[in-house]
Amino acid sequence: MQVAAPQSFRRVLSSMCTEPHPAARDAAERFLASNPGDPTTYPAVSALEDEAVGMLGEMTGLENPHGYIASGGTEANIQAVRSARNLATTDTPNVVAPKSAHFSFQKAADVLGVELRLAEVDANRRANPDSVTGMVDEDTVLVVGIAGTTEYGRVDPIPALADIAHDAGALLHVDAAWGGFVLPFTDYEWNFGHAEVDTMGIDPHKMGQAAVPAGGFLAREKRVLDALAVETPYLESTSQATLTGTRSGAGVASAWAAMDELWPAGYRKQYERSQANAEWIADAFESCGYDVVDPVLPLVAADVPRETVEALQSRGWRVSPTGSGELRIVCMPHVTRSMLESFADDLESI
Ligand code: PLP
Question: The domain that contains 199 carries what CATH number?
Answer without folding.
Answer: 3.40.640.10
